[in-house]
């Protein structure tokens, strides 16, 4: 018989993870046990300022009280029905999210990758039913250095060798062109092109913002050729860049948006495709579904998130504090470029000075959680952060780079 575990013993959580979990991540050697707002606490009692924010899943900070309250209330009533039945949260969530984003129809899902996959499926079906593309011939154009998720189809369109290596054969029907190159995009569009799929700001590529006018040119190209514009705003959407949707900076509208991460308020995976009713309307019952997509608990959490965003407070915080963050980061010795918008920054470290991995490890020792990105740093604190907390974080980065 196995011995009875000692409930008072403190387990070595890192050793347990290394033994029992697949090694598909390489986290910093910190075990977090509590968190609130912009701060997390480790097993040793040390507090850390969070400059990662769950890759934008924690836009509202850890355990935002209004989101937690909505979840607790729903937990006491109803958590899952499947889509075989209606529930009292689903329709309200769809209406409120559509009103927030200025769209017409909502297709709820769970993860960001699932939302992007769903947008791809819908675009193909629309191409066959509406555009008249021959069955099985629909093509979708994507940008190089993208990140749309980790599913087989999503890694099929990736140019990251680590993401693709030994995961083939890959899904056909995609063309990859350089991000920001409108001429390459125009040359790639043909009568079988169903859609152009882009991140308005490329996160995993290093928080890369395209040149002004590029996204408007993409919209015009889609209009001229009868092609759908699919915007992956899973990471850059919902106030992260200072506007509700990142495309809002350019006054551009997509036909479909993939949303996720912060839509779940840092409590659970919630995602959605939002956009034109006539495009999402090509789906008929039985053609697409998700057991957990649109479940009552997810919808209650998502509605709380929408209520927070509807005030405009978080968009304003991201704009104002983002300007301050970028200014401070740009003053640091050893930093050659700061990219991004709002409370989202890619920090380019001078070549040969150090690596993003080394910096993130050193920052943890100074009470700051930050992660490398393409060998450099990605800074994305929760939108509840204060100016004083930004100073704490940037001062820690300056100390390490100095």
Strand content: 15-25%
- Please tell me how large the radius of gyration is: 22 Å
| Helix content, binned percent | 25-40%
Q: With helices defined by DSSP (H or I, 4 residues minimum), what is the helix count?
A: 13
Structural class: alpha/beta
How many strands in all? 15
**First-last Cα distance:** 56 Å
Low-pLDDT residue intervals, each spanning 5 or more residues: 1-8
- Described by the principal axes of the CA atoms, the overall outline is globular
Largest sheet: 7 strands, mixed
Provide tags for this entry.
seven-stranded mixed beta sheet, disordered N terminus, 402 residues, four-stranded mixed beta sheet, 35% helix, alpha/beta, single chain, globular
Q: Could you walk me through the main structural features you see in this protein, from its secondary elements to its overall organization?
A:
By secondary structure, the chain is α/β, with parallel strands linked by helices. It is 35% helix and 17% strand. The protein has 13 helices and 15 strands. A seven-stranded mixed sheet has the order 4-10-9-8-7-5-6, sandwiched between helices. Strands 1-2-3-13 form a four-stranded mixed sheet. Helix 2 runs antiparallel to helix 10 (296-310). The protein is globular and about 60 Å long. It starts with 12 loop residues before the first helix and ends with a helix. The model is unreliable at 1-8 (pLDDT under 50).
């Amino acid at each position: 018989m196995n011995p009875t575990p000692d409930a008072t013993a403190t387990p070595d959580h890192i050793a347990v993870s290394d033994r029992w979990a697949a090694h598909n991540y390489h986290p910093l050697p910190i075990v977090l046990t509590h968190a609130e707002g912009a701060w997390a606490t480790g097993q040793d009692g040390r507090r850390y300022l969070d400059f990662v924010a769950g890759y934008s899943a924690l836009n509202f900070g850890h355990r935002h009280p209004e989101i937690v309250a909505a979840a607790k209330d729903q937990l006491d009533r109803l958590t899952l029905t499947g889509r075989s039945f209606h529930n009292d949260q689903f329709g309200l969530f769809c209406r409120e999210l559509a009103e927030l984003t200025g769209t017409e129809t909502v297709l709820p899902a769970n993860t960001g990758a699932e939302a992007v996959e769903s947008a791809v499926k819908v675009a193909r079906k629309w191409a066959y039913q509406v555009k008249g593309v021959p069955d099985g011939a629909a093509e979708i154009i994507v940008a190089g250095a993208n990140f749309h998720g980790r599913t087989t189809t999503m890694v099929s369109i990736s140019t990251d060798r680590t993401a693709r290596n030994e995961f083939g054969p890959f899904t056909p029907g995609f063309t990859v062109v350089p991000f920001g190159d409108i001429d390459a995009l125009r040359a790639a569009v043909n009568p079988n092109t169903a859609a152009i799929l882009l991140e308005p700001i490329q996160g995993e590529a290093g928080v890369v913002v395209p040149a002004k006018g590029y996204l408007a040119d993409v919209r015009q190209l889609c209009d001229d050729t009868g092609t759908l514009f699919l915007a992956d705003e899973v990471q850059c959407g919902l106030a992260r860049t200072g506007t509700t949707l990142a495309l809002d900076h350019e006054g551009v509208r997509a036909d479909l948006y993939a949303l996720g991460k912060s839509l779940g308020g840092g409590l659970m995976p919630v995602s959605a495709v939002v956009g034109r009713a006539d495009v999402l309307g090509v789906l008929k019952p039985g053609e697409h579904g998700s057991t957990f997509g649109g479940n009552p608990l997810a919808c209650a959490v998502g509605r709380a998130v929408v209520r927070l965003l509807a005030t405009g407070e978080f968009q304003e915080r991201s704009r104002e504090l983002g300007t301050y963050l970028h200014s401070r980061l740009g003053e640091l010795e050893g930093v050659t470029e700061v990219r991004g918008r709002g409370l989202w920054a890619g920090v380019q470290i001078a070549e040969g000075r150090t690596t993003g991995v080394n910096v993130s490890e050193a920052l943890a020792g100074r009470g700051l959680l930050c992660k490398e990105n393409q060998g450099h740093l990605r800074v994305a604190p929760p939108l509840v952060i204060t100016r004083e907390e930004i100073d704490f974080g940037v001062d820690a980065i300056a100390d390490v780079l100095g």
